[in-house]
Design brief:
Blueprint (H helix, E strand, L loop, with lengths): L2 E5 L5 E5 L22 E6 H14 L4 E5 L1 H5 L3 H10 L4 E4 L2 H9 L6 E3 L8 H6 L3 E4 L2 H11 L5 E6 L14 H10 L3 E7 L12 H18 L6 E3 L3 H6 L7 E2 L24 E6 L2 E5 L17 E6 L16 E4 L2 E6 L7 E4 L10 E8 L2 E3 L1 H8 L3 H6 L7 E5 L2 E2 L16
Parallel strand pairs: 3-20, 4-5, 4-11, 5-6, 6-7, 7-8, 8-9, 9-10
Antiparallel strand pairs: 1-2, 2-13, 3-12, 12-18, 13-14, 14-17, 15-16, 15-18, 16-17, 18-19, 20-21
The chain binds pyridoxal-5'-phosphate (PLP).
């Protein structure tokens, strides 16, 4: 094998292997060609999102579904995820921020969009101008909304009841007052009444039933006041999957539409398909002698000679530094360990005696044959949840959107470079 040589910091000579054709078993599929500018990219399977939405809707006992696409579609891309969810049969969309709702409107999406947290009162005009449906739980925001809507079409408010999460929402002691205020606000109609589960991902937790009962009290309070919300909604992914008695008019899943489970095994026999994979290609491969330290701090040294590969992705891309000497990736159809500290733009892997070539595909999240690394693996290594893992795939990582098994052509609503954008 031809190659060049390079002196290491330790003064020893390390062989740098030249790029070769991708090795057997390495490329996952012909469609995974990296974008021209970078050998690291995320692939989002929009058919998987559409299919998951259709599956969840068929599973739910509610007639409708709100797809939660906030936080850049949990890292999958705001606009493409929303479009795919609508293809799959989502009736409405939900975001956290007015800006996210505006980006969906700018992309031509005309489905009802719920903003799940109150923005500052000054944002009420912008929210209404984008025809977004606000969540309401404070008198200050309601007053700003009423003022902003007067003279125009009524604001369609979803009043959020705090049923025990205690993060946002109207506390039980104030339900009656808040519902009366909404009823009295001339430019506001009650579109929705809703709440959010705190422990639905822990199926045996007694607080699930307590919270559901509290929500029922809220509905009874509204009925007693003559309030008639157009829709009632409570269930997140976990509730959608295993609490049919909480589905009301709409289920409101986020994580599950991207094909992930809120906790292991929670989907039961509901088939979900993970939509996100993350790939790179080895940029450099070299032989390493026993004891030669790798990366900042030289925290990893092989006990015997080995082959080291460099991957052009780092913590600035979302390869969290805490994965140093801990995480694994797939290459050549098998898992290999991260060797040494993850740097800002790159990290190294121990390819062992199987070796590898520059250009070989790496699956950071994804599969090659039967070898696989999942967002749940990352969550276990990092002591976090899969939600944080997909949200953490950096904005610097280009997204490629697959539709019908093909890469969707890039356009204004399908950002390829600097991906994960809002279109
Ligand atoms: C208010 C609200 N509803 C629904 C969801 C969706 O939850 P999940 O992703 O667990 O389905 C979230 C997510 O954080 C949320 O904050």
């Amino acid at each position: 094998m031809s190659g060049t040589t390079e002196a290491t910091a330790a003064g020893e000579v390390t062989r740098i292997l030249e790029p070769g054709p991708a090795t057997a078993g390495a490329p996952r599929s012909a469609r995974s060609e990296p974008p021209a500018q970078r050998a690291t990219w995320a692939e989002i399977d929009l058919d998987a999102i559409a299919g998951n939405v259709a599956t969840l809707k068929a599973h739910a006992s509610a007639p409708g579904l709100i797809a939660v696409v906030k936080a850049d579609g949990y890292g999958h891309g705001l606009v493409p995820s929303a479009q795919a969810a609508l293809v799959g049969g989502a009736d409405r969309l939900a975001v956290a921020l007015v800006e996210e709702g505006r980006a969906l409107r700018a992309a031509g999406i005309d489905a009802p969009i719920l903003v799940m947290t109150e923005p500052p009162p000054e944002a009420a005009p912008a929210l209404l101008a984008a025809d977004l449906e606000p969540t309401v739980y404070t008198a200050a925001f309601l007053a700003a909304l009423d003022a902003a809507a007067s003279g125009g079409p009524p604001a369609r408010a979803h009043v959020k009841l705090d049923t025990g999460m205690r993060r946002v929402g109207v506390p039980e002691a104030d339900w009656e007052d808040a519902l009366r205020r909404v009823g009295a606000a001339g430019a506001v109609t009650l579109e929705g009444l809703w709440s959010h589960f705190a422990v639905a991902d822990e199926p045996d937790h007694p607080f699930i039933a307590a919270q559901a009962a509290t929500f029922e009290r809220g509905l009874a309070c509204a009925r007693a006041l003559g309030a008639r919300p157009a829709v009632v909604h409570l269930a997140n992914s976990a509730g959608t999957l295993h609490l049919p008695e909480t589905h009301y008019d709409l289920v409101r899943p986020g994580l599950a539409i991207y094909g992930l489970e809120p906790s292991p095994g929670l989907a039961g026999d509901v088939p979900l398909t993970p939509a996100l994979a993350w790939y790179s290609r080895l940029s450099l491969v070299k032989r390493l002698a026993a004891g030669e330290g790798v990366s900042y701090g030289l925290t990893w040294q092989p006990s015997a000679a080995t082959t080291l590969g460099t991957v052009p992705a780092g913590y600035a891309d979302g390869v969290v530094r805490a994965l140093s000497n801990r995480g694994e990736v797939v290459t050549g159809g098998r898992r290999v360990g991260i060797a040494g500290r993850v740097c800002m733009d790159q990290f190294c892997v121990d390819l062992g005696e199987h070796g590898g070539r520059a250009g070989d595909e790496i699956a950071l999240i994804g599969a090659q044959g039967s070898a696989r690394v999942t967002a749940d693996d990352w969550a276990a290594w990092l002591g976090t949840i899969n939600y944080e893992v997909t949200c953490g795939v950096g904005a610097r990582v280009p997204r490629r959107y697959l539709e019908g098994g093909r890469v969707r052509p890039s356009g204004p609503s399908t950002p390829e470079a600097g991906g994960g954008g809002t279109g």
